[in-house]
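User: Just a sanity check before I run the rest of the batch. Below are the structure tokens for the first item. I only need the designed sequence back.
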């Protein structure tokens, strides 16, 4: 996996922000306007103190102070108005960027391969997607309300001090450069701990998600103590990394405080000496002090801002890692939608290896006629399910090619290929949505009547009718509210709605009881009509009527024929049948 740099994360945030560049520019203008108004206030204090120094208090001199007081009021109102503009515009800018980042991340994640999702924790992926947008929120707040205002205040204070006396400005500029360089270096030192904290946070979330998803399994064994220990271990590591991160930032805050004390005392000492020599007025001293108060108010939070910014970079880094990781399975340049009219399937000299030392198929050849019903049987690990996954192009081949109606699937778009194949897996996973939505997922344009008809053919209309909300019943996460047989029938109904010319049944009845299997077998007969069918099965009783049965051993076709033909041969199929035949008659 490619690891994202700070620049990569900032580039991802920038791309999201630039989708709404008009609002970003308006925020920049409003922040600058409001901060400039704030930096003008020390000038009015200078004018006020200079007037106090020159005039004795009396009723006659009150009018002299009125313009200064009115000016102070107006400039403060201008600053108030500018900050309100920043807030209102930011409220319309940031949520749009959050949504854009989330949508882009979600789209890119879905484009990753089958193997990618097999290797990832679902809970961690969700957290990484959300943390990218949360990281942008934190960074945008710091840039809008701290970084830009601090830059404007520093420039304004430097100009003001230079006008009073150039030496003061030089001292201030040198100190400012040292302060910023120190904070940048210190933040780089601290960000290592921040990144480690973010990684452990994701790991802890993954452990939690894994345990909660398998809560029933934990109860059955029972193993709550082991899971608590596992989570406690990773949570302890996260806690220690968080304390380490915070301690580093506390050291930075302490050093900042010392630097501020040094410049405060230094400038006031120089200022008082020049006042005693008559070079500066009381108004100048008031200007220096009020400018420093304004500067310190901004700079004191710079270290915290750097921390938040690097926190946001650490938060976004893991998601940007995934955004930088190329999709393993990609449409080739110029790929076109596949056109399937007959459903002929050909594997030609196919070689596929998961690893260099584990080749599942070598020089594998198979031709399936249009609308032929073919079953794949054999021992576990022989390559049966791999064959179907290669047909879906969940993996790319090492050698050879797969043709559907004479078209190389590697040159077709993935979506169009998978749109032409229906799958009923051994353990169908349903969305936590209504039954109507789950069945219609096979084809989003299907009418209600088509959904009802598919449910009837799949033999699931009866149990749906018994539910209080019928088709509007939510099935629970992963369909947990339904039995295994009910989930299978919903999956079959979904495949019927899809009505693809090629059908793959991957152990579709292996985990069901006899009654559920009978119902599903009836439904499968409806589903298989006029389709090219590939059935992966361990239960040989379910494939007796297939046109052809292929015995897969070691990634090759060891033998093939009809059920009766294979029984006559004293091979693997006959041995498997003899093992299972206790309850079946030929």
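Assistant: Here's the designed sequence for the first item:
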């Amino acid at each position: 996996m490619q690891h994202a740099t700070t620049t990569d994360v900032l580039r991802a945030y920038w791309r999201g922000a630039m989708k709404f560049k008009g609002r970003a520019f308006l925020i920049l203008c409003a922040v600058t306007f409001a901060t400039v108004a704030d930096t003008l206030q020390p000038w009015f204090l200078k004018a006020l103190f200079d007037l106090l120094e020159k005039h004795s208090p009396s009723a006659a001199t009150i009018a002299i102070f009125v313009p200064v007081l009115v000016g102070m009021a107006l400039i403060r109102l201008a600053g108030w108005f500018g900050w309100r503009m920043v807030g209102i515009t930011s409220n319309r800018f940031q949520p749009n960027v959050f949504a854009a980042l989330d949508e882009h991340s979600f789209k890119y994640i879905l484009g990753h391969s089958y193997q990618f999702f097999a290797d990832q924790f679902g809970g961690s992926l969700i957290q990484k997607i959300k943390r990218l947008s949360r990281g942008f929120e934190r960074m945008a707040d710091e840039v809008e309300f701290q970084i830009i205002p601090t830059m404007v205040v520093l420039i304004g204070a430097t100009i003001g001090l230079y006008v009073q006396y150039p030496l003061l400005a030089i001292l201030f500029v040198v100190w400012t450069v040292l302060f910023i360089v120190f904070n940048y270096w210190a933040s780089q030192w601290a960000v290592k701990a921040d990144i480690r904290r973010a990684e452990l946070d994701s790991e802890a979330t993954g452990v939690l998600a894994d345990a909660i998803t398998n809560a029933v399994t934990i109860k059955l064994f029972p193993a709550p103590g082991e899971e608590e220990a596992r989570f406690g271990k990773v949570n302890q590591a996260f806690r220690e990394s968080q304390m380490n991160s915070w301690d580093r930032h506390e050291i930075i805050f302490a050093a900042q405080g010392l630097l501020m004390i040094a410049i405060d005392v230094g400038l006031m000492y120089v200022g008082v000496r020049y006042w005693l020599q008559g070079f500066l007025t009381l108004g100048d001293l008031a200007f220096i002090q009020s400018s420093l108060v304004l500067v310190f108010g901004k700079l004191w939070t710079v270290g915290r801002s750097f921390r938040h910014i690097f926190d946001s970079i650490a938060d976004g880094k893991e998601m940007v890692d995934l955004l930088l990781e190329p999709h393993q399975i990609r449409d080739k340049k110029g790929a076109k939608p596949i056109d399937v009219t007959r459903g002929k399937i050909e594997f030609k000299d196919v070689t596929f290896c998961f690893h260099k030392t584990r080749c599942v198929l070598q020089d594998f050849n198979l031709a399936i006629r249009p609308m032929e019903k073919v079953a794949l049987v054999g021992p576990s690990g022989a390559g049966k399910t791999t064959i179907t996954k290669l047909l879906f192009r969940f993996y790319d081949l090492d050698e050879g090619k797969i043709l559907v109606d004479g078209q190389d699937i590697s040159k077709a778009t993935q979506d169009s290929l998978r749109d032409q194949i229906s799958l009923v897996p051994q353990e169908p996973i349903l969305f936590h949505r209504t039954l109507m939505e789950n069945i219609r997922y096979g084809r989003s344009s299907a009418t209600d009547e088509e959904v009802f008809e598919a449910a009837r053919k799949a033999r699931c209309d009866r149990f749906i009718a018994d539910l209080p909300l019928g088709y509007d019943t939510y099935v629970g996460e992963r369909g947990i509210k339904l039995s295994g047989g009910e989930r299978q029938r919903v999956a079959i109904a979904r495949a019927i709605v899809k009505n693809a010319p090629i059908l793959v049944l991957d152990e579709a009845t292996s985990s069901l009881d006899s009654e559920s299997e009978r119902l599903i077998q009836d439904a499968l007969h409806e589903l298989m009509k006029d389709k090219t069918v590939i059935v992966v099965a361990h239960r040989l009783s379910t494939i007796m009527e297939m046109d052809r049965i292929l015995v897969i051993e070691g990634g090759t076709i060891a033998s093939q024929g009809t059920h009766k033909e294979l029984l006559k041969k004293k091979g693997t199929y006959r041995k498997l049948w003899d093992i299972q035949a206790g309850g079946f008659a030929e």
